[in-house]
Amino acid sequence: MQTIDQALEKLKHSKFRSSFKLTKKEKQYLEEKGMSVIRTHAEDFVRKKLAPADPVNDGKQTPMHGHPVFKAMHATACCCRGCMNKWYKVPLHKELTEEQQERIVNLLIAWIEKQNSISM
Fold first, then answer.
1. Is 99 exposed, middle or buried (0-12, 13-18, 19+ CB in 10 A)?
2. Count of CB atoms within 10 A of residue 120's CB?
3. Total-model pTM
């Protein structure tokens, strides 16, 4: 099982995954809402979009823009079950456990916090 730092390091080597960056507007949104609210949003998105055994519209359920968590989901390959299977060997067609959901949320938050610390 890889650590968050190992996952983030691996993702940096993907041209597509490393192309995602938080915009100034998204960073302002983080500032306004605070990380506890963002974590709650991430938990909700993961529970609804990724946790079911067969998510609705899997592969197309996560927008590319509109919320910092959506961008983090694409940057960390947690945007759909196919990407999660490819990058993290998460089984397809099997509901995610609470522990798996928590690990995904922790990875998303780590990516957001790292992006938020980068000046624009």
1. exposed
2. 9
3. 0.93
Q: Give the residue from 117, 118, 116, 119 showing the smallest Cα distance to 26.
A: 116
pLDDT digits (tens, 9 = 90+) for 17-38: 999 999 999 999 999 999 999 9
Dump the DSSP string for 19-36: G----HHHHHHHHHH-HH
Task: With CA atoms as reference, report the closest residue to 87 among 71, 101, 76, 99.
Answer: 76
User: Cα–Cα distance between 63 and 74 in angstroms, integer?
Assistant: 9
Contact between residue 77 and residue 12 where contact means Cβ atoms under 8 Å apart? no
CA–CA gap between residue 120 and residue 111 (Å, rounded): 16
Q: Which of 68, 66, 93 is nearest to 80 (CA)?
A: 93
Q: Is 49 within 8 Å of 61 (Cβ atoms)?
A: yes
User: CA 86 from chain center: how many Å?
Assistant: 15
